[in-house]
Amino acid sequence: MMTVETVSQVNSRSMFFYELVGMVFIIVLGSMLHFTFELSGGNPVVGAFSAVNESVWEHLKLVFWPALLFMFIEYTTLRKKMTNNFVLAKTAGIYLAIAIIPVAFYFYTAITGESIFLLDIATFILAVIIGQLLSYKLLTYKKLSAGFNRISLVLLVLLGIAFVLFTFYPPELIVFRDPVTGRYGIPQ
Q1: Of 90, 98, 87, 94, residue with least CA distance to 148
Q2: Does any domain span residue 68?
């Protein structure tokens, strides 16, 4: 018979493995989503889920949609295992990852005065890794109030709505501005 500690250790290793797989999944799919809008011939449905320009905001979709998809895949696999705070863990990981990208981008460009392609890629990868590690920590943390999961689900849905809405109706703020064309949102 397994002790509670042994079950917990096995569960913790299993969760860590899933989060590692998630890192790879998000990085690979997110990288592909950078090109899908252009490859689709400018299909607006594809644009809702992939980068439609070179703005910082559009690059955040490259984390959000793959992470959301992986969340659903992971849920179907883990729903019968002992996991704590699933929706909270995934939402917090996604929010952290998409917060890191603009903070790092604007920080380093303030210093260098320019965007550096390799730093952008490194930032994306690092953001995904950190987001998945936070998710792992919350998945293996003690069970928190179910209210946190409900609030997290609302925040996740609102963010998804914002990504779709702002693809077509972006505010004229710097984060939404394509530095290459100077335009906002989906190309007309």
Answers
A1: 87
A2: yes
Report yes or no: 58 and 51 within 8 Å, Cβ to Cβ.
yes
Phi/psi-derived region of residue 115, left when phi > 0, alpha when psi is between -120 and 50, beta in every other case: beta
- Exposed, middle or buried, 54 (CB in 10 Å: 0-12/13-18/19+)? middle
* This prediction's pTM: 0.89
Q: Which residues contact 87 (CB under 8 A, 6 or more apart)?
A: 149, 150, 152, 153, 156
Instruction: For residue range 40-80, list pLDDT tens digits in order.
Output: 999 999 999 999 999 999 999 999 999 999 999 998 887 76
- Domain-embedded: residue 97: yes
Does residue 74 form part of some domain? Answer: yes
Which amino acid does the sequence have at 51? Answer: A
